[in-house]
Amino acid sequence: MAAATARLHALVAAAPTRQLAEAFAAAGHELALVGGPVRDALLDRPVTDLDFASSATPEEILAIVEPLADATWDVGREFGTIAARIGDEQVEITTYRADTYDGVSRKPQVAFGDTLEGDLVRRDFTVNAMALRLTPLRAEHESAQTVTDASPQLVDVGGGIEHLLSGVLDTPQAAEQSFDDDPLRMMRAARFSAQLGFEVAPRVVTAMTELAERIRDISAERVRDELTKLLLTSGPVAGIRLLTDTGILDRVLPEVPALRLEADEHAHHKDVYEHSLTVLQQGIDLERSRNPDAAPDLVSRLAGLLHDIGKPATRRIEGRTVTFHQHDLVGARLAKKRLKELRFDNDTVKSVARLVELHLRFYGYGEQAWTDSAVRRYVRDAGPLLERLHILTRSDVTTRNRRKAERLDFAYDDLEQRIAELREQEEMDAVRPDLDGEQIMAILGIAPGRAVGEAYRMLLEHRLEHGPAEPAEAERVLREWWAARG
């Protein structure tokens, strides 16, 4: 705890915290460092954002901060928050709040509070409801009045320190009241449990289960953002399990809980839900090992979680075997529909759906060697998603049969090697026909139209099948095709 205290003191002593404390004290307003920065300093995690709460109104905050800041902007003045950049740090300062939902609107009803303690008790979880009250004292000096700081006061309204030490996620007030104030907090519980590795208090789990339907009161955009934050943690599986077990995921992403298919006493198949969670985590591990310096990849993680969501709709029992024919195509359609409803951007929707559609392409490579043209088509169909497809396909191997797993791993190593060799030989990332549209029209003596497009696609197929051709050879192929076409 001594080390944690030292970290807190260092955080308070550094600019811009000290500058802000002095400025707010001089203006006669209270200022406290709140929430995440306090939590992360106590946990010895990197402090990336500085969040403050104050007795000042948004207009008063702006007036105090502007002389110190390089820039200021409204994060949402109606919500009481002003953001500023001071030196190298970005800060947010919010008027003490007491938000509630009216049970009808999908946005919180904002009410400003009077005290720091009242603000903290309305926050989501005790580990986020701690604050350092910055209480500067004024001292007389020879030439001017200055503000010097005394020791900051830790304010803990709900046992946050105890819960940090024990690794428990709980609410400062009754969990039902907290989630009724803002139902999105139920999804935050899943995110923080995954992010911090904490156990969720039983009373919180109970409240999440009982109030699961309230998540429908939250806008799709806010649900999407919270789901994204969960998936971008280092271990989102625990959070997804919690959302599934409490029934919340049935209201947010129902295709995932639907993967818990009933076992058939005569036919056998993998537990698709557990398999999908394993694929998600294996994909995250591969993502880190292949691209250690890259930011977490949302597209890859969504694809890993959703790659088999077409299975429930395509499940058929054939003798003692369960089949899922064309679940890749059905799953791609379902993924596109759900992600659109959650207001994901078009690029993310298209990329995830395409990966789901392609995730079975590799199977069969181990049984019979692909031709060079098949490898070229694999690369062409994946396009810019090729590296993500590598990760998804490799992480999709969850068999306990070590020999089978090693065979599939070896086969994919071989495929990646062949892709690298062909890419070096043929510049596969920019595969185009050996003749462009202008050359096609000149050789055939035709004007722009459908025939030019058909010729272009024919030459592209020829390139994929046979590799690059010299101009004379490409012209011969074109003329033969034209003559046969009549």
Automatic annotation (TrEMBL):
Organism superkingdom: Bacteria
Keywords: Coiled coil, Magnesium, Metal-binding, Nucleotide-binding, Nucleotidyltransferase, Transferase, tRNA processing
Cited InterPro entries: Bact_CCA-adding_enz_type3_sf, HD/PDEase_dom, HD_domain, HDIG_dom, NT_sf, PolA_pol_head_dom, PolyA_RNA-bd, tRNA_adenylyltransferase
Domain HD stretches: 272-411
Cofactor dependency: Mg(2+)
Entry's Gene Ontology molecular function annotations: metal ion binding; nucleotide binding; nucleotidyltransferase activity; tRNA binding
Entries under PROSITE patterns matching the protein: HD
Gene Ontology BP, a term: tRNA processing
Coiled coil (UniProt feature): 405-432
PANTHER family: CCA TRNA NUCLEOTIDYLTRANSFERASE 1, MITOCHONDRIAL
Protein name: Poly(A) polymerase
Species lineage: Bacteria, Bacillati, Actinomycetota, Actinomycetes, Micrococcales
